[in-house]
Amino acid sequence: MKNILVPTDGSKPALRALEHAILLAKQHPDESTLYVLNIQSPITSHNVNRFFSADMLQDYYEDEGKSVLEPVAARLEQAGVNYQSQVKVGHISDVVKDFVAEHRCDHIVMGTRGLSPVPGLLLGSAATKIIQAVDIPVTLIK
Description:
Helix 5 links the parallel strand 4 (about 105-110) and strand 5. Helix 4 crosses helix 5 (about 125-135). The chain is globular. It has helices at about 10-25, 45-50, 55-80, 90-105, 125-135; strands at about 5, 35-40, 85-90, 105-110, 140. It is α/β, with parallel strands linked by helices. Residues about 115-120 have low confidence and may be disordered.
């Protein structure tokens, strides 16, 4: 295993997934890279574009993503694993599918449920969409 993608929203399941990915990366420390990815959903309201420039929106997405990734980066530094983190904007399944291809990810480790306000789902909609979009192993962490 070389390239492990960990999509994260900062939720407890996502943080548990990060811990599992760290364990996997430590099994092959010279061969593994963790790619930690925060995906921001695009704001689709047409009114937003009337009041905010594209640069302002991009800054907003970056700020939101960095607030999720900062504690994750601190944990990865402490663990001593090779990693890269990024913030992307888009629909989760499309972003993950493109990211997996671009970075040649071999495996995805993610939480079963994120911060979505939809209660009662056994498996989160993001996890379901990602499983359907990729053809590499996906480990789901509760």
